[in-house]
């Protein structure tokens, strides 16, 4: 896209759906982000330590964007990270299966990126987020888990990040993230 | 379903700020398990109480070219879906759940994913989502199609139990079946081998001098969690109470634990707070105890952080030393072992011990016939991403 201005694109339906589910669950959407957001979003920024798949880079990018859209929190605000993915990192899973079946090499870096928790831990470490880390397969589950964590007091805010490497519409890998809080606490800052 | 009831944590020891729980008590009314020791709790508990490890050469698939050659696996190549269906049926039967009760009961499933996903043709992958796998399992076992799948690595099952407990306590569900499964297979074996995480001496030695890593093990388990009032109405006795739960993150590293164990300590404190008990009432800790150098040291620090000097006295063992690391299913396998031990009044041995490690000053159960020092047991799990969970179970 060099030399051309980035043109905003419609947010993926995953973002709209996450935000709608969150509001239906009486949660406040404090910030949101997605991938892609504009025509400049072609390849997600590489993530040191993660290889061969855009799964973790997309989670990290939508998380970073959402968290940047609210004022920096102090350590007293406990934020959980919930990763939602129907298939997980299917690109990495297929590569490992092929390597195993053909006698190819399984790279050591693939070890930790084989679980979605790993990139959640990356996001948490970058922003010193000390709430629970959870990975689930469906957006409904992600929002329900977020609501429970908030209600139970294990988190003050929950970042829910969804990624789909192979959307059924064939439109290419995409991701969405919402930062959620209890409605009474929505005054902590930010809005979407 | 009953109306949600919000209640602050019970009076008692203070936990992390803001910790709350609903007012319903949560009971475990059915459970079933399969491990490398065979089907059922009896052979697993016998192995754990005797400190008899189930590790042996891997014969299920080719491990030529791998550094490690050992796991704790059942003979043959059982199918995960079939083993999950069997434990779910057995747990539901044990809890006295008929067809109508099953049909209204949600399934929370902890798995790495559909085992066939990695080898599915690209245009067939949509049939192999975790939810599709769980939905087929729910249909097969007569459970509700309200499934939820947890893939949070080694805290997947314990997170599912914590969430089921929270839902029931808040009155959002009367009953939830939590199931989890991992059967040793070539892909994760290759990944853990490549990551140099597997013990090359063929034993898991939690908290011991000379420990060198983990070993994978089969684990398939199911429990029925139920509100005490629902169980009372059905006149079903509780096997145990799920008294408390806690989840917290490290915010530290992609795969290394925070060395001071403060994330796990917060999870433990939250579980005790929800249970309304102090540290002295904890009579047994089923530790995560992976047998890896940094993780065991951080877990020992976490126990001191949460339990104070009681950490030096409370009996501790990691049953991974006999049944191995069941990954996404580990938390449920170990919860079932903990409940079995509390009910038997005898505690599992921390097998494979070579000698003390000064960084892990714990009261490890090194001999047979250890006895609980209180009515409650803690089952701890940690995972990649700095995820930590603590489940607190008590005798009924």
User: What is the number of helical segments of chain B per DSSP (H or I, 4+ residues)?
Assistant: 11
Head-to-tail CA distance between termini of chain A:
28 Å
Characterize the quaternary organization of these chains. Answer: heterodimer
CATH class descriptor of chain A: Alpha Beta
| CATH class group of chain B | Alpha Beta
Q: Identify the CATH architecture of chain B.
A: 3-Layer(aba) Sandwich
Count of discrete alpha- or pi-helical segments spanning 4 or more residues of chain A: 6
Q: What is the H/E order of chain A?
A: HEHEHHHEHEE
Number of strands of chain A: 5
Organism (chain A): Actinospica durhamensis
Domain Beta-ketoacyl synthase-like N-terminal (chain A): 77-164
Protein name (chain A): Beta-ketoacyl synthase chain length factor
GO molecular function, one term (chain A): acyltransferase activity
How are the elements arranged and paired?
The complex is a heterodimer of chains A (192) and B (396).
Chain A (H helix, E strand, L loop, with lengths): L12 H12 L2 E9 L19 H14 L10 E6 L5 H13 L7 H4 L3 H11 L5 E4 L2 H14 L4 E8 L9 E9 L10
Helix pairs in contact in A: 1-6, 2-5
Chain B lengths: L5 E3 L11 E3 L3 E10 L2 E2 L1 H10 L5 E2 L12 E2 L8 H15 L4 H5 L3 E4 L19 H12 L5 E4 L5 H14 L5 E8 L3 H9 L24 E9 H7 L5 E10 L12 H14 L6 E5 L6 H15 L7 E3 L2 H4 L6 H15 L18 E2 L11 E8 L3 E8 L2
Parallel strand pairs in B: 7-8, 7-9, 12-13, 12-15, 13-14
Antiparallel strand pairs in B: 1-2, 3-4, 3-10, 3-11, 5-6, 9-10, 11-16, 15-16
Helix pairs in contact in B: 1-11, 2-4, 5-11, 8-9
Describe, in plain words, how this protein is organized in 3D.
The complex is a heterodimer of chains A (192) and B (396). Chain A is of the alpha/beta class and 192 residues long. Chain A has a single domain, classed as 3-Layer(aba) Sandwich (Peroxisomal Thiolase, Chain A, domain 1). Helix content of chain A is 35%, strand content 19%. Chain A is built from 6 helices and 5 strands; from the N terminus they run αβαβαααβαββ. In chain B, α4 (130-141) links the parallel β7 and β8. Chain B is 30% helix and 21% strand. In chain B, strands 3, 4, 7, 8, 9, 10, 11, 12, 13, 14, 15 and 16 form a 12-stranded mixed β-sheet that branches. Chain B has a two-stranded antiparallel sheet with strand order 1-2. In chain B, strands 5-6 form a two-stranded antiparallel ribbon. By secondary structure, chain B is an alpha/beta fold. At the A-B interface, α3, α4, α5, β3 and α6 of A face α4, β8, α5, α6 and β11 of B.
